[in-house]
Design brief:
This protein is α/β, with parallel strands linked by helices. It has helices at about 15-25, 35-40, 55-65, 80-95, 120-130, 145-150, 165-170, 190-195, 215-225, 250-260, and strands at about 5-10, 30-35, 50, 70-75, 95-100, 115, 135, 155-160, 180, 200-205, 230, 245.
């Protein structure tokens, strides 16, 4: 059986759009996602979907077994460990890597209400000084860390509506009054009404770019006078032979049009 020779990592909306571009150009590929939620995010694509997290050794075995000739890392901007494993594995096996970089809006918004930090601990320490009811729009992956650092505060978590995520919220001690299971993207108007509804005093978010609705999350904070703590993206300086960096979906489109001819 002949397998696709291009493997894409990513359960994001960006990854799905890259898959759709490859569908249009007729390029065979497979998509690796970590969770069932990632499978749902990829609904409608033609490529094979592989589900489950891969550590470095397992990733190397898979790439060799499938005889992968090219890897596209379109994982979430904050998936540091995954991106590092992908980079190391491709370098070790000599497989060309296309590193997709989601455009950032972090420098587009400057305001005294915006507090930019580098770590989860710093985000929590800043939020504690600013209010008592703290809304997390950061997803569920590091929820354990946030609830640990924010002990004594009322933590409100907006998370994906999946059984796995809800179970995690409950294991962190969050009650039904603290869990808001919703699937984005959300408009600025929706977020404004939502912040008012849950009576948030501080919002913690990530530098998620246009695809993650960054401005739509920040602008309502400014209009409502709410402090917004932004966890900035980790710096990932991956340099090496066989690596191509692409910034945004337009660059991906141009690359696919020329690179795969």
């Amino acid at each position: 059986m002949k397998f696709p020779t291009t493997l894409i990592f990513g359960g994001t909306s960006d990854a799905r759009q890259i898959c759709q571009m490859m569908d249009v150009t007729g390029i065979d590929y497979c998509l690796s996602v970590a969770t069932p939620a990632g499978v749902q995010q990829a609904t409608g694509i033609r490529g094979e979907i592989i589900t489950g997290r891969m550590e470095a050794e397992e990733m190397a075995d898979y790439l060799k077994l499938r005889e992968i000739k090219r890897v596209i890392d379109a994982s979430h901007p904050y998936a540091e460990r995954l991106s590092q494993n992908i980079f190391n594995t491709c370098q070790k096996l000599g497989i060309p890597l296309i590193r997709y970089i989601r455009p950032s809006d972090i420098d587009a918004v400057e305001n005294p209400l915006i507090h930019k930090v580098a770590t989860i601990k710093q985000a929590c320490e800043t939020a504690i000084r600013l209010g008592t009811r703290i809304l997390l729009t950061t997803g569920s992956k590091q929820l354990v860390d946030y609830t640990e650092y924010l002990q004594g505060k009322t933590v409100l978590a907006r998370v994906l509506p999946t059984a796995e995520v809800l179970k995690m919220c409950e294991s962190c001690g969050l009650s039904v009054d603290q869990i808001f299971a919703l699937k984005g993207p959300f408009s600025a108007d929706f977020n404004r009404a939502f912040y008012q509804f849950c009576r948030a005093e501080v919002v913690i978010t990530k530098e998620s770019g246009e695809q993650g609705g960054f401005r739509e999350k920040v602008e309502p904070c400014l209009s409502l006078g709410l402090p917004c703590v932004v966890l900035c993206r980790p710096e990932q300086q991956f340099e090496g032979e066989g690596i191509i960096k692409v910034n945004g979906l337009e660059e991906v489109k141009h690359l696919l049009a020329h690179f795969y001819q």
